[in-house]
Amino acid sequence: MSMPYLTPSIRLRKTPFSNRVDRAGAKAYTVYNHMLLASYYETPEEDYRHLKSAVQVWDVAVERQVEVKGPDALRLVQMTTPRDMSRMQDDQCCYIPMVDVAGKMMNDPVAVRLSQDRYWLSLADSDMLLYCKGLAAGAGLDVEVFEPDVSPLAIQGPKADELVSRVFGEDIVSTRFFRHKTINFQGQDMIIARSGWSHQGGFELYLDGSQYGEAVWDALFEAGRDLDVRAGCPNLIERIEAGLLSFGSDITMDHTPFEAGLGKYCNLDRAVGFLGHAALSALTEPSKQIRALEVDGSAVPAINHPWPLHNASGDPAGYISSSTWSPDFNTNVTIAMVNREQWDAGTVLTAKVPGGDRTATVREKFWI
């Protein structure tokens, strides 16, 4: 059964790279932060093989930025997250769980510190601009909160270093993980960070000014012809192998950071200024948590709703949120939210997969 057609609308914003994405042959799109995101170009398997062997350029402008600027910028950012932001440096990026007053997840962006009083929050798929504006107004903070004209472009894969060196300079390759440097493109300063939503290594360029989008794209493709550079997008297979969680799928607003396995980003002893501190302090021992599972049998179908898990007695044990066939590991790689009583490695569960029950085994860790 085919899925219904997605009707285009001007409410679904294009990105500075959309014309190039269309020209590159994107075969499917999804909607993310009210924008169109290419979901694959060839088949997911072909994209996966190429990502692991060459270099890809991803239009990830859907990772919209919330800019927080002013004397109270750090205070506002800290109000949203249990991660201690006080020690962050001006060239640093930090993955942060953002929580509400009940300690539940609202987003899991990468925070980019540009200076002591200026931050970007590079968002996952949920609206945080109005939330941050509301916090600023309600607390009477001396800060500006707005969406800048900044659009990330990812350069991912084992040949990403070579491509970035050719276009932006050899010194950029020395950038440490989750740190950023400034480059100048056609007279415009932009930052580029060693980061990205894959395990293959690479960078994310924060395009500062939509008018430069197509020129940056063209420069990367011209310089990378002999590297087999291609347009790409976050790959379902590779990101499950690496345990990269998708907000809205694997973790939602019903979960705490501890249930999402993000406890190491919760500095409850130091980050006392965040709104959910009291609530989250009472939720440090979760009754369920994210786990990697192997699901037996042939390739599972596409998942568009959670698949229940049951224990040996037939009782509920959690649910699967992401699953697909891995060509490299010859199994169905899977992300699941599993109850405490069943989350130990080696536990065998039953997955209620469309087409018939499957055996699902809890793994100690993800594949890569």
Would you mind describing this structure in some detail?
- There is one protein chain.
- The chain folds into three domains: 18-60 and 149-240, Gyrase A, domain 2; 65-146, Aminomethyltransferase beta-barrel domains (Alpha-Beta Plaits, 2-Layer Sandwich), CATH 3.30.70; 287-368, Aminomethyltransferase beta-barrel domains (Elongation Factor Tu (Ef-tu), domain 3, Beta Barrel), CATH 2.40.30.110.
- Helices cover 17% and strands 32% of the residues.
- The chain has helices at 18-24, 44-51, 73-79, 129-138, 160-168, 213-223, 236-241, 277-281, and strands spanning 28-32, 35-40, 55-59, 65-69, 93-95, 98-99, 105-107, 110-115, 118-122, 144-146, 150-156, 180-185, 188-193, 202-208, 229-232, 288-295, 307-310, 316-326, 331-339, 348-353, 356-362.
- A six-stranded mixed sheet has the order 12-13-14-11-3-15, with helices on both faces. A six-stranded antiparallel beta barrel has the order 16-19-18-17-20-21. It has a five-stranded antiparallel sheet with strand order 5-8-9-4-10, with helices on one face.
- Strand 8 and strand 9 form a beta hairpin.
- The longest helix is centred in the middle third of the chain and has 11 residues, at 213-223.
